[in-house]
Design brief:
It is a single chain. The chain is mostly helical and 326 residues long. Helices cover 84% and strands 0% of the residues. The chain contains twelve helices and no strands.
């Protein structure tokens, strides 16, 4: 009922804030380490720490709006905040004042603005509820533990390449991986938009046995829709990837056509499974997605250790494709 939902949102917001505060304290303490003394990282980390709170609040409010199928409000506010973020970066770059610390100031401010506007939409519905925290955690732990495992496995997938490349190949190659991965992820906004659109609708369909046919129809249609831009992007990457990367990022990153094609191919394979992962979450079965991501993480670690020392950056590309099979 409505009152139970209000308590659930309130306790969830409280838990989100507690986790954000703990993360802020950890990052703040990290910035005080002597290892970072005198570096730009030491200047930026305290700002990053405080930016965590508005980012977490904004993400919670975005999810709350999507859960209530208020998609137009969520998307419009997100677009406005992203536009404001880009304008802030562009202005600082134009006046030659863009630094890491100031960039995170802009991020924190824009995220807080977005979170505040989103909260205004739901101010009568969401209030902090400290009395229902433990029951909420217990009630949703069976579901949440798989999402936590998914997040940890995904973090391994995202972070393992730069560190292994740094160890086996060198610092300059890390920049190449960053550039190629960014290029491969150009269609990512389409994927995020589709996921944000699909999850609430799939969840509502999955909650009613009579609408499971609708869920399957949405799943098939979404796979078809997402395949169009991603397969087109794969063809473009294969034919013109090296030229485009050179044009966008400078001549320093020319000659990596094979690596670009492999990483884009791996990205396409991973992205095509997103609608299925969304459907499994809607059916309260995230463990299958988590197991898949965990298998991908294991494949990534093993293949990276075996291939990167002998093949260098090409080994990263092959590992990317192998990882996507998980």
């Amino acid at each position: 009922n409505s009152e139970d939902k209000k308590k659930y949102y309130g306790s969830s917001l409280t838990i989100t804030l507690l986790l954000a505060v703990l993360s802020t304290a950890f990052i703040y303490c990290l910035g005080s380490l002597s290892y970072f003394s005198g570096s730009s990282i030491q200047e930026a980390l305290p700002i990053v720490a405080w930016a965590v709170i508005p980012i977490c609040i904004r993400e919670f409010m975005r999810t709350a709006l999507l859960a209530k199928l208020k998609i137009a409000q969520s998307v419009s506010i997100s677009l406005a905040s992203s536009s404001l973020l880009i304008c802030g970066f562009a202005y600082l770059f134009y006046i030659d004042a863009l630094t890491t610390a100031r960039a995170f100031y802009i991020i924190a401010i824009t995220q807080m603005i977005a979170a505040t506007v989103m909260f205004m939409y739901e101010r009568s519905y969401i209030v902090l509820d400290k009395s229902n925290i433990l029951p909420t955690i217990k009630q949703h732990w069976n579901f949440g533990k798989w999402l936590l495992g998914n997040a940890v496995s995904s973090m391994v997938l995202l972070q393992i390449y730069p560190w292994l490349v740094l160890y086996y190949v060198g610092a300059e190659s890390v920049a190449v991986i960053g550039v190629v991965s960014s290029f491969a992820g150009f269609p990512a906004p389409i994927l995020r938009s589709l996921d944000a659109y699909l999850l609430p609708r799939m969840s509502h369909s999955a909650s009613k046995a009579s609408e499971l046919t609708t869920l399957m129809s949405i799943l098939k249609l979404s796979v078809f829709i997402i395949s169009i831009p991603y397969l087109a992007w794969l063809i473009i990457a294969y034919l013109y990837g090296d030229h485009l990367v050179t044009l966008i990022y400078s001549d320093s990153y020319s000659g990596y056509g094979a690596l670009i094609t492999l990483i884009v191919f791996g990205t396409v394979m991973s992205s095509m499974s997103t609608p299925l992962s969304t459907a499994l979450q809607a059916l309260d079965a995230p463990k299958f997605t988590t197991i898949s991501v965990a298998v991908s993480a294991i494949i990534t670690v093993v293949a990276s250790v075996l291939l990167i020392p002998s093949l260098g950056l090409l080994g990263v590309g092959i590992t990317s494709v192998l990882s996507a099979t998980g």
